Amino acid sequence: MEVIITNSADEMSKKGAELVAAAVKKNPKAVLGLATGGTPVKMYAELIKLYKSGALDFKKVRSFNLDEYVGLPGTHDQSYRCFMNENLFNHINIDKKNTNVPDGLAKDIEKSCAEYEAKIKAWGGIDLQVLGIGSNGHIAFNEPLSGAMSKTRKVAISQRTISDNARFFKTMDEVPKTAVTMGIGTILEARKIVLLASGGNKADVIAAAVEGPVTQLVPASFLQLHADTVFVVEKEAASKLKGKY
Ligand code: PGA
Questions:
Q1: Do residues 184 and 150 make contact, with C-beta atoms less than 8 angstroms apart?
Q2: Domains in the chain, ordered, with CATH?
């Protein structure tokens, strides 16, 4: 595991974009694992800038998103499909047919999850997975107690995450309570992982994930077992790390 501490959230976003850009330059058909949430928004804006300047070509890039709310159609403004279209896909030359987001409306969710896993494998596996981290240590919607070997599945969203997500919805009742998410096992199969975090509210969980024991109480701590994970952490979020990195 590598930890890169940045002076600002902007610098974190630029560093994240640099790592994604490097993967795409190395392999123009790279399979990217993509994340939603507040944290990666500026990183996507940096990637859009790189595309517009002619420095990056997404024509053959393929992608799989981590998760989606159950019950929200891709047209709902809070669906993760809509988030990806608005924050990245609509502004670059990626072919939307090459972009995948779990289906939160699938009639047979178990089957749809198995198909998602199979498609990741059929497309050669994820070259680079982008992650955020929840204040409770979740990665994607793998809440505390998610197993290290877990795969794409339907999960209950924890009360803490429901409260964290409430800011995106008009009322608490509208916040979805279940989601489809890649598992920890799915994420750990990615060849490279880049986790971004910023803000003092993430300081405790970053310290636990990087320096604490590997435990399902802090799902992000399982990343310690991965061969090539980079934590790109803005200095406030890094403020409780004891080591000097
Ligand atoms: P955030 O969410 O980027 O909105 O803080 C992170 C996450 O829950 O993975």
A1: yes
A2: 2-143+157-232 (3.40.50.1360)
